[in-house]
């Protein structure tokens, strides 16, 4: 089964091709930055490398990472989704409210929340594709709608802004196995979300680089008219991408709900830009058509490490925002450089 | 008159009195032409003459509003480029339908990827597609360094050739080329003309759109001249010289006026 094609060696390819090939990979910058930040906090704080410390920043990174990977796929496909953060709250609230207030079966509640999320994702895609409006604006509208509805509806039904009594719902513990459990690894108490994060990153990478759908995602983000001309089903691809970010929002909503057994009506608000920043730090171009899932996962790792590293170092956590801005600027500059290196003529 | 002498084998593509209006704008009317196996039909005309409109009808991008379109002698109305493609009518647009940031081989197979495995587990046959891309380009006389480089890094002529090679590989019976040489230098335009001749020699019909008679004349068998949306005629090579063609296209009176205007006092 190890049938290999004869390697065609061409003298016109510079022998220094390895570095060039590496530079062509979008996630290289993020990998270097992640390593630097890892070393920095490992050396400068006591807690960072302890088992508890590692488990903490990996958990943080995992929740952002799942979203960042989905957002990266969408950005490679040439679109944004600003409603992705609010979706985390919406899905958590749906499950929380209909199980605790109305006694709906918990598994059914999961399915209902997922269906609603996917429908909202599809609606985003539909409006964007049918009107030709920028997804930035369309999903900004969705974001505000979800934010408002999350708060208003939660208040009407529960009289408060959070869900109580979730852990008393029948079947809670069974569902918790999938979304809120932990396992022990090398003495670390790892949250299950880390497994989801790694699995989703691996799956997304395989889809992007090794499947037809992945080819189409790059194509619709890179040149939508060309894609249409060669028969790529543009509408289907974009629809799938918006539904993926919505679905990822549902997953993270469940991971949070079943971890802490409650959900606030404001959950996820303000995170949408962090997902985009993670994706960009991971090498996604804002203009679409270029990027990587591994890069986005690394972007989230950088964010998770910094978020917790600043706590461990006992710095004022306002530095996090400043750091994030700096990272973003640096990433955009690196991307610009890489793009020029790749020598793509316009 | 050219259609009266048509033999028993119908041409691959034929249009009769075809026309197209965009709302109230008459972009094309009363145009007749045909292209057969191993034949090159050149469509000439100035900017705005209706060349792009003409090929959009042939390629299924737009539906004609007047006249008839026949493929292999059967009347058709293409609802989408896919329908035209399924009949072997492939179009290489001015913008080439490539995605600049994607590797050459991914562009070559875009929309027609080769996969292995079943259902959700099917994945791209990356090795196979890389190899075929390299081979097919070589068959067209294009020797590419690296099929993994972004297609945007190729020269205009190379990109054009990749687009033609792609159409040929995917079973095109007719290749429609929209101004493939207009943005190219002399040398690169020459190379593209060579690929057109190659495609013709391999038995394809070629519809070659250009506004340059010097590009059209050496490679063409028939010449359809368009001006302001109407046909000035469909000529065989033996029926027209390059000078006549140039004059017809520009309008002899207009050329004379221009010569007069530019003359030294
Ligand atoms: N989509 C369209 N809507 C309205 N008018 C159009 C459209 N496409 C082309 N036209 C008009 O039809 C005429 C012919 O255009 P076109 O076929 O693009 O010419 P060419 O390719 O020879 O330069 C022009 O006057 C152009 O303005
Ligand atoms: Mg044109």
UniProtKB/TrEMBL annotation, chain A:
Its main location: membrane. One of its GO terms (molecular function) is transmembrane transporter activity. It is a multi-pass membrane protein. Keywords: Cell inner membrane, Cell membrane, Membrane, Sugar transport, Transmembrane, Transmembrane helix, Transport. It is found in: Cell membrane. Pfam families: BPD_transp_2 (PF02653). The chain crosses the membrane at residues 28-49, 56-76, 82-99, 106-127, 133-153, 192-209, 237-257, 269-286, 293-313, 319-338. CDD domains: TM_PBP1_transp_AraH_like. Part of the binding-protein-dependent transport system for D-xylose. Probably responsible for the translocation of the substrate across the membrane. This is Xylose transport system permease protein XylH.
Automatic annotation (TrEMBL), chain B:
SUPFAM superfamilies: P-loop containing nucleoside triphosphate hydrolases (SSF52540). Keywords: ATP-binding, Nucleotide-binding. Transmembrane segments: none annotated. Residues 13-253 form the ABC transporter domain. The keyword Ribosomal protein does not apply. InterPro entries: AAA+_ATPase (IPR003593), ABC_carbohydrate_import_ATPase (IPR050107), ABC_transporter-like_ATP-bd (IPR003439), P-loop_NTPase (IPR027417). The keyword Lipid biosynthesis does not apply. One of its GO terms (molecular function) is ATP binding. This is Sugar ABC transporter ATP-binding protein.
């Amino acid at each position: 089964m190890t049938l290999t094609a004869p390697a065609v060696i061409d003298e016109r390819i510079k022998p220094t091709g390895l570095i060039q090939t590496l530079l062509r990979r979008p996630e290289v910058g993020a990998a270097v930055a992640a390593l630097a930040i890892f070393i920095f906090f490992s050396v400068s704080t006591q807690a960072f490398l302890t088992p508890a410390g590692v488990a903490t920043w990996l958990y943080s990174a995992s929740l952002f990472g799942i979203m960042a990977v989905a957002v990266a796929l969408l950005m490679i496909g040439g679109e944004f989704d600003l409603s992705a953060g609010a979706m985390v709250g919406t899905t958590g609230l749906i499950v929380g409210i209909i199980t605790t207030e109305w006694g709906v079966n918990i598994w059914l509640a999961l399915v209902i929340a997922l269906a609603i999320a996917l429908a909202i994702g599809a609606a985003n895609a539909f409006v964007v594709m049918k009107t030709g409006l920028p997804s930035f604006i369309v999903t900004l509208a969705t974001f505000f709608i979800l934010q408002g509805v999350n708060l208003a509806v939660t208040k009407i039904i529960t009289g408060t802004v959070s869900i109580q009594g979730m852990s008393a719902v029948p079947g809670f513990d069974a569902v918790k196995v999938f979304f809120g459990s932990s396992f022990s690894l090398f003495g670390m108490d790892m949250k299950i979300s880390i497994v989801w994060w790694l699995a989703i990153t691996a799956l997304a990478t395989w889809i992007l680089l090794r499947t037809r759908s992945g080819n189409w995602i790059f194509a619709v983000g890179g040149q939508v008219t060309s894609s249409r001309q060669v028969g790529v089903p543009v509408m289907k691809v974009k629809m799938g991408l918006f539904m993926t970010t919505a679905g990822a929002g549902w997953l993270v909503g469940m991971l949070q709900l079943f971890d802490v057994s409650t959900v606030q009506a404001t959950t996820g608000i303000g995170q949408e830009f962090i997902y985009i920043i993670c994706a960009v730090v991971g090498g996604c171009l804002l203009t679409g058509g270029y990027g990587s899932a591994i890069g986005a996962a690394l972007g989230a790792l950088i964010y998770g490490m910094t978020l917790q590293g600043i706590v461990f170092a006992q710095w004022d956590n306002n530095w996090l925002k400043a750091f994030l801005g700096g990272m973003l600027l640096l990433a955009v500059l690196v991307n610009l450089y890489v793009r020029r290196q790749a020598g793509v003529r316009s | 008159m050219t259609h009266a002498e048509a033999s028993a084998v119908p041409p691959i593509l034929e249009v009769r009195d075809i026309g197209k209006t965009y709302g109230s704008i008459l972009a094309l009317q009363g145009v007749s032409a045909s292209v057969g196996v191993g034949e090159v039909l050149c469509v000439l005309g100035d900017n705005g003459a209706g060349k792009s409109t003409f090929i959009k009808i042939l390629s299924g991008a737009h539906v004609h509003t007047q006249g008839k379109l026949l493929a292999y002698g059967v009347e058709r109305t293409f609802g989408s480029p896919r329908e035209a493609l399924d009949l072997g009518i492939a179009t290489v647009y001015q913008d080439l339908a490539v995605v600049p940031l994607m590797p050459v081989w991914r562009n070559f197979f875009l929309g027609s990827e080769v996969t292995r495995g079943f259902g959700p587990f099917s994945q791209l046959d990356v090795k196979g597609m890389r190899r075929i891309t390299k081979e097919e380009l070589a068959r067209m006389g294009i020797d590419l360094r690296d099929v993994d480089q972004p297609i945007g890094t190729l020269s205009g002529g190379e990109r054009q050739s990749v687009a033609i090679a792609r159409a040929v590989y995917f079973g095109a019976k007719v290749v429609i080329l929209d101004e493939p040489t207009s943005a190219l230098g002399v040398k690169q335009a020459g190379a593209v003309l060579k690929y057109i001749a190659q495609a013709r020699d391999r038995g394809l019909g070629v519809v070659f759109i250009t506004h340059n008679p010097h590009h059209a004349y050496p490679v063409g068998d028939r010449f359809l001249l368009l001006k302001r949306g109407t046909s000035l005629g469909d000529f065989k090579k033996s029926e027209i010289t390059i000078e006549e063609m140039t004059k017809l296209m520009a309008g002899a009176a207009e050329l004379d006026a221009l010569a007069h205007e530019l003359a030294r006092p």
